[in-house]
Amino acid sequence: MFVLRGLSTPEWPYTPRLHVSAHRPAREPRTRGVVGHRLQTREPAIEAGPEGIPIENAVRAWRQCGRLWPLDDLVAGADALLAGRQPLASAADLDAEITLMGDVRGGILRRALNLARPGVRSPRETRLRLVLVRHGLPEPNVNIDIFSTRGDFVAEIDLAYELWRVAVEYDGRVHAEDPRQFARDADRWAAIRDAGWDHVRVLSHHLRGDGSAAVDLVRAALLRAGWRPGQ
User: Could you tell me the superkingdom of the organism this chain comes from (predicted)?
Assistant: First the structure.
């Protein structure tokens, strides 16, 4: 479901496989290349996906991934469902599904839901937010609009520490080979700084390993702005 909808799934070294489920009393498929699952006796909630392919309801699919995915990927999956102007689910929907059908793996779904936030635009933003908090930094707000001193809109910030005016963004550099987009980005970065914000750009290599390089960049900006550990 997540792949067909273009939503986040676990990154390498997780190996995606084709999972097909059947509702009891039907038997799960058993064929090469397919992982079969036999679901509880329950009224199906199949939806039409791309090209009319039948796919599982988004909320149910997220819960089913609870038996397979690591915690952070479940958080990113929940973030993806909660995102956008027309989200595929609400936090209440996910909570109701857990309550109705039960949690798995020691309560991993409830933990993931508690860490999920609406408005997140990418799984790397999710990972960055989780890494910062786990290393003892305050939790930033998600996708905050900032304005100039005249009240003009400047930018929407991925992760914002409004009290200290520190803007943190994950920069995947998908436009690195586009000079015009790079120029627009550079003008935007300057506008953020002109609005009185310290702008921290986190690149992919900063998130390698335990993400400590990204944490160091953000911690330094917060310290410059007057934050102190324990606040």
Answer: Bacteria
